[in-house]
């Protein structure tokens, strides 16, 4: 026990006699200069100035983007406008953003505050989009059917339940469960 204490104190003493900051500065790269990296295939995409919270990429190259999420107490880019779902086609040479029209008689577009999104493609290649929505800072899930020809989302259902998770990956069992609700 005595030898261990002496060796420990000797080790600590030697560590303090050596320049203690130089080894930490070297190890943590304190004075390293960070050089910017230019990515050759990275481009600014106009139309997402209000920010994006989540995106979902389909196997055919279409991308759904949720945009316009507002947090309570924080400034937002477009505080007077509702959120939106955007569509991009990554197969295009220069992808552009298209705002999807949301149709449906019972959907309140003025309080749309989209957060997480997930897609499910049915056996007949119908694409369903589930969007976690926070109207008046509560949580709901909005179920949409993507209409590719019209470039629109048909609102099918609003799902409210205190035990619904905020984000998830959809499986066929989740779709069955959500249709029952």
From TrEMBL:
Reaction it catalyzes: an N-acyl-L-homoserine lactone + H2O = an N-acyl-L-homoserine + H(+); a phenyl acetate + H2O = a phenol + acetate + H(+)
Note accompanying the cofactor annotation: Binds 2 calcium ions per subunit.
GO molecular function per UniProt: acyl-L-homoserine-lactone lactonohydrolase activity; arylesterase activity; metal ion binding
Q: What is its EC number?
A: 3.1.1.2
Q: Which SUPFAM superfamilies match?
A: Calcium-dependent phosphotriesterase (SSF63829)
**Active site residues according to the UniProt entry:** 115 (proton acceptor)
Instruction: Locate the residues binding Ca(2+) 1.
Output: 53
Q: Does the keyword NAD apply?
A: no
GO (cellular component) term, any one: extracellular region
Glycoprotein found in the keyword field? yes
- Designated name of the protein: Paraoxonase
- List the lineage, top down: Eukaryota, Metazoa, Chordata, Craniata, Vertebrata
Gene that this sequence comes from: PON1
